Amino acid sequence: MKIACRLAIGLLLASVAAEAQVRPEADLCAVPPGAQPLLPAKLMTGMGTTNMVVTTSSDEARKFFNQGISQMHSFWFLESERSFLQAATLDPNMAMAYWGISVSAAGDYRPAFQLIRDPNEGGRAPGPEATSAQSATVPRSTNGAALSPVVRAKEAAEKAMTLRDKVSARERLYIEAEWARRNPASTSRDADHITALRKLIAAHPDDEEAASILGLALLDGYDSVTKKPRTHTLEGIALLESVVAGNDEAFGAHHYLIHGYEGSETPERAWHACRRYPELVTNIPHALHMPGHIYAQSDRIDDAIAAFAAAADNERGYMGADVLYPNGHHGHNVHFLIHSLNLEGRYNDSMTAVRHLMNDFKETPRERTGSNQRVTYRQGYYGLVKTLVRFQRWDVILDGSTIPVYDRPEQHAWRLWATGLAQINRQQLDAARATLKEMGAQVKNATGSKRPLSIAEMELEATLMAHTGDRKKAFDLFRKVATDEAALLYTEPPSYPRPVVEGMGNTALALGEAVTAEEGYRIALQREPGSGRALLGIANALMAQGRIIEGRLAHERALVAWNKADVDVAMIKSTSRTDAPRR
Question: Is the dihedral of CA 221, 215, 337, 541 positive or negative?
């Protein structure tokens, strides 16, 4: 009966969700929020230990509140909101429980750099917080909770504000800082939030929870091209480093430091945090997943694969225990696993992970008709296209069945991109021209991934031009497109299937333009440190220039990097046919 009731509620929420306020797609590095989670919450193991002093009449409420803080620090918003809601149920006058609901519900408690993305790519949409939470048009569940996470966050912050005179001065500052972020009268909510957090820390300089929260809010990330830190990033990192220097068990700060260094020139500075975070938080998928971000960027691919595999196993347990548990984060995790397996040259394992996402997570009718590019099946579809192109499986791409025809413009466009590249590599140039034209029409209709798809269209044009027209003009276009791709806002994994310079190197090598090929592959190696794929490309390019000794050295390095690669990888085969030593 209980399961049937939960399923009925899930169906009800799905049927009215389309009426809910439009919001940005949550960053799937965290389990995205949805409707208010169901009670009861349970006290769980492996969440990390938090002991924040708060005002409450219930010791049990205090336990759930501190569990909520731990879960919040790991971006497990589904469970942190549930824990805070349980605390509020046990003590309806617990102001900080409503503060926690507000922090958790909207899914925007994330590094600042994630919020500057296009809303369709998981950033903050303009102005949804300004919608009146009291409006009769706000869709609500049967218990009265707003279906819109943004509205629910605002209502919780309002409730906390009504109770702020009943708590300590420190708690009041927490509540006022959160309200600054939810206040619909403000046009600078994120900046107001930071200002209020600075006031809190000035009054309570030893509060490591507040310092960690401010450190996260300051992480503006890095310029995509220069890798230079944006305005507040170094300040945020310094604040977080000071927290862990004083307490190496501050798992929230360790988590945020990983975000602080991802996308930088020095991801290895987060290696200590990558080790400590999953040691301290052993039973939250995101905590096991996050070290993989850094390892995938700093030539520790085996460690990245291990992190994503452990997170996937952990999350399958939660999915199996709760039919309402969302699968989007699992899709993101396995997508990043596919990305890492691609980096390590493991085609067969990549395809196994792709099939898992596409076969085990069929789209719901709502997902099928929506524009959300982050549902699990679509992440698998993208991983399929990415894998086949990176491993140059041109005949598989052209077999008419491995990449299913999908009538949404984004998936249709990615399939056409792969098809066009395969046609060019199989000298089906007239067919490739038609494919390029068809792709252009699909890109115009796309609503998500618009910028990456536009770049893909230009890359396909440059590839076709190199094979059929003015090569100089073609490679100049390649360089422009590569610059545009490198300038895409940082996402994890990258929002483009592979560096454009890799495609440039492949095209140049196929056409005998060995110097240009070397140029492309060397930039690709900078983009993906230790890449066996880039090193094999460099080896091929050097051999083609008659630079045999350098080519052999590059080949030796490539085989070390790809010591677990499939033996039938096309690039290994092509290199082994040169003067380089055979495997």
Answer: positive
Residue 472: exposure state from Cβ atoms within 10 A (0-12, 13-18, ≥19): exposed
| CB 460, CB 420: distance < 8 Å | yes
Q: Measured over all CA atoms, what is the biggest interatomic distance in the chain, rounded to whole angstroms? A: 79
Enter the tokens of residue 102. Answer: 């507000």
Region 501-527: what's the mean pLDDT? 97
Cα–Cα distance for residue pair 447/425, rounded to 1 Å = 29
Domain count across the chain? 1
Query: Taking the model in full, what pTM does it have?
Result: 0.89
Contacts of 16 (CB under 8 A, 6+ apart): 139, 147
556 Cα distance to chain centroid: 33
Q: Which two tokens stand for residue 305?
A: 């694969």
- CATH value at residue 233: 1.25.40.10
At 459, phi and psi to the nearest 5? -65, -40
Residue 71 lies in a domain: yes
CB 23 within 8 A of CB 126: no
Instruction: Kindly report the number of other CB atoms within 10 A of residue 399's CB atom.
Output: 11
Percent of the chain with pLDDT over 90: 77
- Tell me whether residue 439 is in a domain: no
**Among 10-24, 67-81, 83-97, 490-504, the least confident range:** 10-24
Is there a contact between 175 and 48 (Cβ–Cβ < 8 Å)?
no
Q: Looking at residue 574, what is its pLDDT?
A: 60
Nearest to 338 by CA among 365, 366, 367, 358: 358
Q: Is residue 223 part of a domain?
A: yes
Contacts of 370 (CB under 8 A, 6+ apart): none
pLDDT of residue 372: 80
Cβ-based neighbours of 429, under 8 Å, separated by 6 or more: 423, 464, 467, 468
Task: Identify whether 373 is part of a domain.
Answer: no
Which residue range(s) make up the domain with 229? 2-123+143-326
User: Using one digit for the tens of pLDDT, what is the confidence trace for 323-347?
Assistant: 888 888 899 999 999 999 999 999 9
| Per-residue DSSP letter, 130 | G
> Which of these, 289, 298, 312, 308, lies nearest to 346 by C-alpha position?
308
Please state, in angstroms and rounded to a whole number, the distance separating the CA atoms of residues 526 and 533.
Answer: 12
